[in-house]
Amino acid sequence: MPDATHPYLHGHHESVLRSHRWRTAENSAGYLIPALWPGAHVLDVGCGPGTITVGLARCVGEGSVLGIDAAEAILDDARAEAATAAQRNVSFEVGDVTHLDFKSGTFDVVHAHQVLQHLADPVAALAEMRRVCRPGGVVAARDGDYAGMFWFPDDPELEEWRSLYRRVARAVGGEPDGGRWLPHWARRAGFADVEISASSWCYATPDERSWWGALWAERLTRSSFANQAVDSGLALERDLERLATAWRRWASSHDALFVIPHVEILCRG
């Protein structure tokens, strides 16, 4: 949930939201679930359409979860998700992770999924998350790592896509290899106890390949990422069309797979 000064690189095109809606507490915050308990009060920063947030709310029983995002429009999707799930202990409001409008020690758990890699100052964001978490509570974060992604079959144009993505992300102030930086950022934010783990997403079935390849083909030509790439002078529209074709080509391969590694941290103290 980048702030207004550093808007979210991907934006909220339907191709982006389709991938966000796929995320659940189980497939995207499994490392955190064992650390939750009935009655816990949780803040989920950068909640997007709320699918992870609602899952966290199921885990805390009589507790509560508040999801915040800098993009007000996406919160309507989040509220609809909660209503569909009949999850009444979850709510949503606009917020900025770099300036959280809560008293110190308000929450038992503060969580961020795929947020810190998009921020110009992830250390300041973690310090703010630490401030609003009570002593003895948990600050949790999970981020992917673009340099660590791998796929089959090899394709020089997918390598070109990754190189372009990393350059565009850094041009707007982010760190696309944020996963590997998480422990370092946490310690700089003042955490003395940082538990580190890793997990991955793997897209390898025919349906998964078709879904993932189509998502990226659309992102490259229709999302805010496409606008940022062109506006920054890092790509031409014809380059993006060519790379979109490479994604569709990858998706059509019977042996194709794509793996995204993530680093996860549970921070205390």
N- to C-terminal separation? 24 Å
The tally of strands reads 8
- Estimate the helix proportion, in percent: 40-55%
* Strand coverage percent: 15-25%
Mean pLDDT: 95
The number of helical runs is 10
What is the helix/strand order?
HHEHEHEEHEEHHEHHHE
- Helix/strand/pairing category: alpha/beta
Largest sheet: 8 strands, mixed
Note the overall shape. Answer: globular
Low-confidence region ranges: none
What would you say this structure looks like, in words?
This protein is α/β, with parallel strands linked by helices and 269 residues long. Helices cover 41% and strands 23% of the residues. It is built from ten helices and eight strands. Strands 1, 2, 3, 4, 5, 6, 7 and 8 form an eight-stranded mixed beta sheet that branches. Helix 6 crosses helix 10 (237-251) and helix 8 (206-222) packs across helix 9 (224-231). The two termini are 24 Å apart. The mean pLDDT is 95.
What labels describe this entry?
alpha/beta; 41% helix; 269 residues; 23% strand; eight-stranded mixed beta sheet
